[in-house]
Amino acid sequence: MKRTTLAAMALFTLSATSAFAESVISITDAKAFETAPSALAGGGFMQITNTGTTDDRLVSVEADFPRVEIHTTEFTDGVARMMHIDGIDVPAGETVTLEPGALHVMFMGLQGDPLEEGETVPATLIFEQAGEVPVVFNIVKRDMAAHNH
Amino acid sequence: MKAVIFGTTTLAAAAAIGLYVWQSQPTTLCGDTAVAGSAIGGPFELVSETGETVTDADVITKPTLVYFGYTFCPDVCPLDSARNAQAAYMLADQGIDIGTVFISIDPQRDTTQVVGEFTDNFHEDMIGLTGTPEQVKAASEAYKTYYRAVEGDPEYYLVDHSTQTYLMFPETGFKTFFRRDTTAEQIAETTACFIDELS
Predict the structure, then answer these.
(1) ipTM of the assembly?
(2) pTM for the predicted model, two decimal places
(3) Among A147, A148, A149, which would you mutate to test the B interface (most chain B Cβ atoms within 10 Å of its Cβ)?
(4) What is the CATH code for A19-140?
């Protein structure tokens, strides 16, 4: 009994210590644009903020689609090259933005079930340090003025 | 990563042409991306949203913005297509009628229905074209665009592709091209200028 208490106390101390230097992730403005009825893929965008004291890294995204990947787009001489990447670093104290034309979450295999305005895409972000972080992507109409920055 | 080159136009060639176009700019009243010459564009034969075989003459019946992309592209292609559509809407507000065309460089997945629905998302009059791999390759070569499907995934493969938008006129062909950082306002302004110049 005593031993159990000690073990529990030790565990508590350990977790309290690790919580001291941790990654605290918050997600804002998670959204995906509506797609055409026959679209096969859609993109998810958001801001990831790490208010903790430890660098973190988004390593995968889980959602109810045949495949979900983290992508980035690079441009060379006017050629767009979209690439699957292993993760996105989110350093302590910083905000990383996934936005059109750069980093995005790609939801693949929508066949027959397009992303429609007003619906949501529940997903789970998996971070190296923070672990699972639930997020809900709101499906919005593409803002036609968004290109004019 | 191994890749299949569908077009004979290699990235290097596309870049060289881009450089040629860039360096051969004459002074023009209509913006600094203007170029002269007939090297870009020309006849093509593709398949329309309704499944009919169409030629460049059927499609480019007025000043038209032409873009090559693919619909399995949730990011760049919708962004550029939305911008081109927006430029068309802006010009329409000024009483100027232009066309917008989206040519798929992914004919394997982009059926006529898929490109039709994709383009309707941006502008009711945007024309979506696809075709056989040979037709698409020929059109891409005529416009000196580059595309390359990344091999390895039969279903969810990605395609690298050029992102410039061409301003084409029915009689006189190629007028200029717009890079993807060009805004809808700039496209509308430059297009209006070319239309003005020729009227």
Answers:
(1) 0.75
(2) 0.81
(3) A147
(4) 2.60.40.1890
